[in-house]
Structure prediction request, 193 residues.
Amino acid sequence: MRKPLLILIAILSAVMLLAVACGSDEADPNATATPAPPNTVAPAERTPEPTVAPTAVPATTAPATSAPAATAGPVQIDIDVNGDALQFNINSLSAPAGAEVVVTFNNSSSVNTHNWALVQAGTKDAVAADGTAAGPANNWLPVNDSRVIGSTVLIGPGESAQATFTAPSAGTYQFVCTFPGHNFTMFGDFIVN
Prediction:
């Protein structure tokens, strides 16, 4: 409430100063009138600039039903771990269906090795179990498994890796670390809209 009142007081003060600075009501007979430039607004008539960002969606935003622009570039997603805890720092990610997605996984843990994999809904534990059988040479992921949509390589403490894939059809998927035993606490939802 105070901000609009302060803006109103500032505008009224400016108008008062302008009126005092203009002098008397009598016109100077020797002065020539200078026309105002076209398409201008006198300072006292200007609408103050808003001090809060608008909440409306700009008119240039594409409708929600349109397909993503091919030239818009890939959806960039960054994810990390929660220190040395066996958790990701984010438990939900999203992307539009059909978009190229680049997930950058930063392993800021000082002791743990991890990977990041996007899998079909409800398959994280089965994929992790099959990844354990595949071993570390395969990044603890089953080889050529249709349940795995995208994944990084296995990365050590302080390392980063990327997973690039095309977002599947709309729905909720899971992301998970398939390092043996990590899948029970290191997972989240990947929502495709």
In short: The chain is about 15% helix and 20% strand. Residues 75-192 form a domain with the Immunoglobulin-like fold (CATH 2.60.40.420). The first helix runs from residue 2 to 21.
